[in-house]
Specification:
This protein has about 70 residues and is an all-alpha fold. It has one domain. The protein contains 3 helices and no strands. Helix 2 packs antiparallel against helix 3.
């Protein structure tokens, strides 16, 4: 039983790999980017935040078109 648990833990650890570190780095960069942007240019940052849904929709459309082979 203990060896099976050990094998399962090893498999989980190999599966996760450095993904957790990557996620932490990306979230930290995102937060730092927001703080930096609001500090240096509040107006421009608010304009970009207002356009964020449109950029997301454009990205989703691009993903769908790339996935369907259009």
């Amino acid at each position: 039983m203990a060896s099976k648990i050990s094998k399962e833990c090893s498999a989980i650890q190999r599966g996760i790999g450095d993904k957790v570190g990557s996620i932490v780095m990306n979230v930290g960069s995102f937060m730092f980017g927001f703080v930096f942007a609001f500090y240096w240019g509040v107006t421009f940052t608010l304009i970009l935040l207002a356009l964020l849904p449109f950029m997301g929709a454009a990205g989703a459309l691009m993903g769908v078109s790339m996935g369907s082979g259009l």
